[in-house]
């Protein structure tokens, strides 16, 4: 909570989806992050990606490795000078998309804020030219009270060829998780 006893942005976000289940949680996370806001202090540059993302599939939250797959179309503003998906944009896409499966298992005090990145290791294998539709498959590899490891695989939608992979480590930032000094 902020000093005025009103929820801050991350608390409002958690309150929006914790009452929901499964794919409904994922939809709300996507909608909330994709909102266009007038206040420049509230803008996040992932908003440039979300209009081109669609939920392809969502696993049950009790699956061994809860997962979400997104469909994304590479736009000109996401590309480098060679008209391929920019490496920084790929990393940002992985950062956001691999965090979303955490919403499937979140509860108050347990990943409800979706954490913050500790590591993001991206491996680029093939280019994704402008206009290419890709699938971004994301799953929870391991999750604990404080740390988790997430995995992302980006495939060309037309033939399933892997374009990039990532391993994403996150730290839980929920207020109920006390930090050691």
UniProtKB/TrEMBL annotation:
Q: Which residues form the signal peptide?
A: none
Keywords for this entry? Hydrolase
* Pfam families tied to this protein: 4HBT
Q: Does the keyword Hydrolase apply?
A: yes
Any keyword Magnesium? no
Reading the lineage from the top rank, the first entry is Eukaryota
CDD domains named in the record: PaaI_thioesterase
Q: Mind telling me which InterPro entries this protein's record contains?
A: ACOT13, HotDog_dom_sf, Thioestr_dom
This chain belongs to which protein, by name? Thioesterase domain-containing protein
Source organism per entry reads Humicola insolens (Soft-rot fungus)
